[in-house]
Automatic annotation (TrEMBL):
Keywords: Chromatin regulator, Hydrolase, Nucleus, Repressor, Transcription, Transcription regulation. GO terms for cellular component: histone deacetylase complex. The keyword Nucleus applies. Responsible for the deacetylation of lysine residues on the N-terminal part of the core histones (H2A, H2B, H3 and H4). Histone deacetylation gives a tag for epigenetic repression and plays an important role in transcriptional regulation, cell cycle progression and developmental events. Histone deacetylases act via the formation of large multiprotein complexes. It comes from Acer yangbiense. This is histone deacetylase. It catalyses: N(6)-acetyl-L-lysyl-[histone] + H2O = L-lysyl-[histone] + acetate. It is an enzyme of class 3 (hydrolase).
Length: 467
C-alpha cells in the first residue's frame, strides 16, 4: 500500500510542479512582452509628443483625404440614414435596453406618413480606420479587436463569446456607418442650414474610452472635421439626451472653440464627475421632471447660451430617453414635449442662421426593457436550474434556491418600478419557491455586485433592492 501512495504522491507533486512551471512561464513571457511593448510605445510616444505640430499635421492630412465628405445632389434632403445602421446579432442585441433598430423604424414611419421619400435620403459611407484615427488612438481601436472589450462597451456580456469578425460585422460596422453619417451631417448642415443623422450621438465615448453603448466618439470626430474642412472655429454642443455627455466633454475639456450646454439627469449613468467639470453650461433635471418643468428650464438655458457663446455650428444631441416611461432616463416628458423641445432647439439655431446638426442618440422603451429583463431572468434561471440539479447536498440546493429567489425578487421589483404596476402579493410571488421568506435572504455584497454587473449597474443606478 505504502509504495503505491508514495508513487502517486510523487506523480502528483511532479504534475503540480509542471503546472506551476508552465503557469509561471506563461506569466513571465506575458509580463516580458508587455514590458517590451510599453518600452516601444513610450519611446514612440515621447518622440511624437515632442512635436505636437506633427500630430496636428497628420490629423489634418487624414481629414483632408477622407472620403466621408462627398457631394450631395440637390434632389436629396438633408436626412442621413442607411439600413446598415441597425444592429441585429442573433437576437442577443435585445439583451440591452437600448433600442438598436429604432433608426430603421424612424425612417419607416416617416416613409409611411409620406413625409420622406426613401430615394431622397442620403446614405453615408463607413468611417474607415484612417478616419477614426483623427480622434482615436491606434491602441483604442486595436482594443476593439477583442470581443470582451466590445461586450463591456455595449453592455451585452454574451457578445464576449463571439469571434471578433462577427462582432465587427454585426456591431462595429453599423456604428462606423453611423459615425460616417454624423461627420457628413456637418457638411450638409453648412450647405443646407440643417441636417439630421438618423443615428449617431455616441456621447459616452471619448478619444480613449468607450462605454454606455458608445464605441466611437462621433461628435468629437464631426467637430474636428468641421474645423478643418468647413472653416468653422466655434461649435456649440446642445446635449439634451437624459444622460450626461461625458465623452465629448472630456475630449474638449480645455478647448475654448467648443461650448457645451448639457441638460441631464444627475441621478443616472454615467456619474462622471471629472467630465462634469468641463461642462460650460450645466442644467440638471432630476428624476421625475415633468414636461412643463423641463420646458421652463430649457427656455432659460437657451436664453443664457445665446448670450454666452456665438457658434458657427450647433451639434444637437437629441436623445429621446427623456420620454415619460423610459426606464433609463427617469424623466417624465410627454411625446408632444419631445417635439416641442426639438422645435425650440431648431428655432434657436435657425433664427440666427447657425447650421444645425441633429443626432438621434439614446432611447429605450419599457416594453423592450421588460423583454430584456425577462430574457435575463430566464437565462439565470436556466443556469441555476442546472446548478440545482447537480447540487450534491441539501445545503447546496438550499443555497441555489435562495439565490434564485433573490433574483426573482429583483425582477419583480424592477418590473413593478419601471412599468408603474403594483407588486403582486408576496404569497403569489414566492408560491413557487416553497413559501420561503425572501426578506430573510442575506446575499453578500460581492455576490450582489457580480449579479448586478453589468446588467443592472446602469439601469438601477446602484440601488440595491434587497431589504
Ligand atoms: Zn441617454
Amino acid at each position: 500500500m505504502l509504495p503505491i501512495i508514495t508513487e502517486s504522491t510523487r506523480n502528483l507533486c511532479k504534475s503540480t510542479l509542471y503546472l506551476v512551471l508552465t503557469f509561471a512561464t506563461i506569466k513571465l513571457s506575458g509580463s516580458l512582452y508587455r514590458y517590451i511593448r510599453s518600452l516601444k510605445m513610450s519611446s514612440s510616444s515621447s518622440s511624437s509628443s515632442s512635436s505636437t505640430t506633427d500630430t496636428e499635421t497628420t490629423r489634418r492630412n487624414r481629414i483632408l483625404s477622407t472620403k466621408l465628405y462627398f457631394d450631395i445632389p440637390s434632389s436629396k434632403v438633408p436626412v442621413i440614414y442607411s439600413s446598415a445602421y441597425n444592429i441585429s446579432f442573433l437576437g442577443i442585441e435585445k439583451l440591452h435596453p437600448f433600442d438598436s433598430s429604432k433608426w430603421g423604424r424612424i425612417c419607416q414611419f416617416l416613409n409611411l406618413d409620406g413625409v420622406l421619400d426613401k430615394k431622397c435620403i442620403v446614405e453615408p459611407l463607413e468611417a474607415s480606420k484612417e478616419d477614426l484615427l483623427v480622434v482615436h488612438s491606434k491602441t483604442y481601436l486595436d482594443s476593439l479587436k477583442s470581443s470582451p472589450n466590445v461586450a463591456m462597451i455595449i453592455e451585452v456580456p454574451p457578445v464576449a463569446l463571439f469571434p471578433n469578425f462577427l462582432v465587427q460585422k454585426n456591431v462595429l460596422y453599423p456604428f462606423r456607418k453611423q459615425v460616417g453619417g454624423t461627420i457628413l451631417a456637418a457638411k450638409l448642415a453648412k450647405e443646407r442650414g440643417w441636417a439630421i443623422n438618423v443615428g449617431g450621438g455616441f456621447h459616452h465615448c471619448s478619444a480613449d474610452k468607450g462605454g454606455g453603448f458608445c464605441a466611437y466618439a462621433d461628435i468629437t470626430l464631426c467637430i474636428h472635421y468641421a474645423f478643418v474642412r468647413l472653416n468653422i472655429s466655434r461649435v456649440m454642443i446642445i446635449d439634451l439626451d437624459a444622460h450626461q455627455g461625458n465623452g465629448h466633454e472630456k475630449d474638449f475639456a480645455n478647448d475654448r472653440r467648443v461650448y457645451t450646454l448639457d441638460m441631464y439627469n444627475p441621478g443616472i449613468y454615467p456619474f462622471d464627475y471629472e467630465a462634469k467639470r468641463y461642462i460650460d453650461q450645466e442644467v440638471k433635471v432630476v428624476s421625475g421632471t415633468t414636461t412643463d418643468e423641463y420646458m421652463k428650464k430649457l427656455d432659460e438655458a437657451l436664453e443664457v447660451a445665446k448670450h454666452k457663446f456665438d457658434p458657427e455650428l450647433v451639434i444637437y444631441n437629441a436623445g429621446t430617453d427623456i420620454l415619460d416611461g423610459d426606464p433609463l432616463g427617469m424623466l417624465k416628458v410627454s411625446p408632444d414635449g419631445i417635439a416641442i423641445r426639438d422645435e425650440k432647439v431648431f428655432n434657436f439655431a435657425r433664427s440666427r442662421n447657425i447650421p444645425l446638426v441633429m443626432l438621434t442618440s439614446g432611447a429605450v422603451t419599457p416594453k423592450l426593457f421588460f423583454s430584456f429583463d425577462l430574457l435575463y431572468f430566464l437565462s439565470v434561471l436556466c443556469q441555476l436550474g442546472f446548478c440545482h440539479k447537480n447540487a450534491k447536498d441539501t445545503e447546496n440546493r438550499e443555497h441555489v434556491l435562495l439565490v434564485s429567489m433573490w433574483l426573482y425578487e429583483v425582477q419583480c421589483q424592477s418590473y413593478s418600478k419601471f412599468n408603474n404596476k403594483p407588486l403582486k402579493k408576496k404569497s403569489d410571488r414566492y408560491g413557487k419557491f416553497q413559501g420561503k421568506d425572501i426578506t430573510a435572504i442575506q446575499v453578500p455584497f460581492p455576490v450582489q455586485r457580480v449579479l448586478y454587473f453589468p446588467w443592472h449597474s446602469s439601469v438601477y443606478s446602484g440601488e440595491v433592492y434587497m431589504n
